Amino acid sequence: MKRKRIVIIGTLDTKWKEIEFMKDLIRSRGHEVVIIDMSMGGDSPIKADISCFEVAVAGGSDISHVRRLASTERFRASKIMISGVITKAKELWKESKLDGVVGIGGVSSALMASNVMKSLPFGVAKLIVTSAASIPAYSANFIGTSDIMMMHTVVDISGSNRLVRNVLERAAGAICGMVETQDSSIRELIENQGRLIIALTEFGFCEKAAKLIMKYLEHKGFEVVAFHAQGVGDRAMENLIMDGLFDGVIDLVPAGVSEEIFGGNRASGPQRLEAAGKVGIPQVISPCGFDMISCGPLSRKNRSDDPLWASRDISSRKLYVVDELRVQARTTIDEVREIARIVAKKLNKSHGPVKFLIPTKGWSSLSITGGPLYEPNVDATFVDELKLHLRPEIEIRQLNCDLNSPQFARAAVDAMLKML
Q: Of 128, 138, 232, 388, which sits with the fewest C-beta atoms within 10 Å of its C-beta?
């Protein structure tokens, strides 16, 4: 088996014993270790491969300044060290000297390590070993839209007791196993070699369309990568588009845009629906998801101070209640006008080809004839507003079918093939 190089990120001034133990475990499995020290306190009894002095310089400062800052302005000190570790980690990756990275420590160490991991490409093995993994507000920030694996240590990583040793032994096994399964295909993936790759957004209310599109594209020889448009998946897709991973995108569910506007549960950030246009890859867009706002759980209905339900009078609308957590409210005429204007503004900036396909018999399984969110006049208003604001060279094509029909799926695939 080929030897791999695993980078350990940690604070040697406080965790040198644990990091050294982890290093020995990884080496015993036949792999090389590079230790990057992001300490902001005192010196360490052991030597790092990349010292905190080097990290501080790479971050645009020096360790003496960082240590002074750390006592009163820890946030600024952390930013310097994070910037420095990111620079060093990227250098190692570019030189093919990094196959995986593991971060060890508490909240501060996990936060710093996660920022470094987010700067590395999709597919690079990433593991955070921390007692803070079980804190929801923290863990979501640690992971973000990156492919980071987290291991909850339960106990604090402090000392050399048998529980800490057991945790580190399993963590060493995990990161070694992750890098051992990697081969050269990771760089081929990142460099977009081989078959063309199409990104596809989907969720439950357009499942039939997504499966048909995937089937048709794969039959044509494409690879298709699907993203669940629940706010995080589609945001991750935007990041990967900016990384140059995809040749085109069929954005069935661009509704992260409208969810962001109205404060829905699937909000995907202010940059949603912009990456493909910046990169210049072909886009096929549908209005799926613009027919609803995700506003669960149902218990919000009884709260007079709820910012979404109260301000937008959700209780008076057509609702589709999946269960006590998932509730979809029909969008109004004024709301779809606002969506159309913002979507047009984003798409008008695109440097690549764009086609907007609109199924006139329903944008999702909820807004077809007889569906719980059926409002054809609202849908028509969106189309009229979109035509007013979208630049003329972007084609708007109306199809006499619903979104989950084979007709729509074929039209979406044909549109993509003509633009590639």
A: 388
Domain ranges for the chain: 5-186, 192-419
- Matching CATH topology for 5-186 and 192-419? yes
Among candidate residues 82, 131, 122, 69, the one with its CA nearest the CA of residue 104: 131
> pTM surpassing 0.90?
no
Distance, in Å, from the CA atom of 354 to the CA atom of 286, rounded to the nearest integer, reads 11
Helix (H) or strand (E) holding 165: helix 162-180
Question: For residues 85-119, b (16+ Cβ closer than 10 Å) or e, as one string?
Answer: bbbbbeebbeeeebbbbbbbbbebbbbbbbbbbbb
The most confident of the ranges 114-123, 125-134, 236-245, 252-261 is 252-261
Q: How far is CA 129 from CA 79, 248, 293, in A?
A: 21, 36, 37
Q: Is the pLDDT of residue 189 over 70?
A: no
Q: Which residue has the tokens 């940690």?
A: 10
CATH number, domain 192-419, options 3.40.50.280, 3.30.70.100, 3.30.2350.10, 3.40.50.12030: 3.40.50.12030
The topology (CATH level 3) of 5-186 is Rossmann fold (3.40.50)
Residue 243 identity:
D
| DSSP annotation string for 108-141 | HHHHHHHHHHHTSPTTSEEEEEETTTT-HHHHHH
CA–CA gap between residue 225 and residue 211 (Å, rounded): 12
Distance CA 220, CA 315 (A): 46
Q: ω into residue 136 within 30 of 0, thus cis? A: no
- DSSP letter at 151 equals E
